[in-house]
Amino acid sequence: MMSLDEIKAPISKQMDEFEIKFKTSIKSSAPLLDKITAYILKRKGKQIRPMFVFLSAALFGEIKDSSYRAASLIELLHTATLVHDDVVDDSNERRGFFSVNALWKNKIAVLVGDYFLSKGLLLSLENNDFELLRIVSEAVKEMSEGELLQIKKARNLDIKEDIYFEIIRKKTASLFASCCACGASSAGATAEEVKRMHDFGEMVGIAFQIKDDLFDYQNNNKTGKPYGIDIKEQKMTLPLIHMLNNQTFIERRRIINIVKNHNNDTRKVAKVIEAVNNSGGIEYATNKMHEYQTKAFELIKAFPYSLIKKSLEELVTYAIERKN
Q1: Does 189 score more than 90 pLDDT?
Q2: Can you give the CATH number for the domain in which 241 is found?
Q3: pTM above 0.70, yes or no
Q4: How many domains does the chain have?
Q5: 57: which of 72, 212, 235, 284 is 20 to 30 A away, CA to CA?
Q6: pLDDT mean across residues, the chain
């Protein structure tokens, strides 16, 4: 697997320029906002999503000013959803650091998320990027629906596999789909090509989320995600769903009872994780993840070989083979 720097090589100049443009796009006249945004920027992740925007744009020709705005729009939306998610989940950590709500409380965190969303809207409207705004607004709607569907289903822990895929398609994959669709659109791709790239991003996003599920069953401090945290938060992941589908009624009830009522008991959570490992749930989820990777590759198969296409494929591979 190529390193992230190697994958980024064909678009490294654009990514560096994007960093500068993005910092400028979130400047505010309010000192507190600038202080919080500076804190967020210092702890930014690997920037996989902007990379998908630029590589998708380059696949269709030249990276234009609108491509930078597309990447900024995605990043503004993504940052807003992360800040809001930490409030919704009552989470005090984000990537191993204090979350915004942990340091500045929920009220300010919600307002900061709103600020990022409004900056994205204004960036699009000021430049007449109506198609980019349409693509991203659709993703915001889907992400909200996915989160609400998950909350509703988590109450009874009655998530079946089809519902699980519907949740992650909306919650996670819709943003990846927007990255690739916005990149293609910004470079002048046709409506049909934009749709293809949207589907490509959706397949990548589903595979990415399954990988995230798998981290819950790996005792690996590099992930920045505590071991068994999804079980403690009563989230139904694919390995857990597969394991429950292959249990007797009595055993299924026992495990659901642990997840629902004893999820802070480390010993009992460890038993659930052991049951998932013994049931073949990890292998099942891993195979599903690779199926979606294959579907993604099929969608860009027709493009001739280029360094851009190679980086795009390697970025997909990185997304599902990452260690954190």
Answers
A1: yes
A2: 1.10.600.10
A3: yes
A4: 1
A5: 212
A6: 85
